[in-house]
Write a structure and sequence with these properties.
With 101 residues, the chain is of the alpha+beta class. It folds into 2 domains: 67 residues, no CATH class; 31 residues, no CATH class. It is 36% helix and 10% strand. It contains 4 helices and 2 strands; from the N terminus they run H-E-H-H-E-H.
Length: 101
Amino acid sequence: MSRSRVFEKLIGGVPLWGSTIPVSMHCNSRAAIEVAKNYTYNNKRRHIPIRHGAVKEHLKNGIISLDYVRSERNLVDPLTKGLIRRIIFESSRAMGLKPID
């Protein structure tokens, strides 16, 4: 059984939900979103590993949805880069995190 089917059965089994609600994934790369949503075979993208096909499968099955978000508005984007104190504090506050005193 594929991972998307397992996830779909898990979410569908929760009594509060009658159907699967797609998990919204935010991405700051329009090119990556386009590649994920494009189901046609492109010889230029043959280097992308098969495991990344799971994203396409989840999109097709309605498990996830991909939404574009600008880098400045992407709260977790600073956590994937070098740690700059000001940006980390701004991002943490935007997520609702508070400093430990």
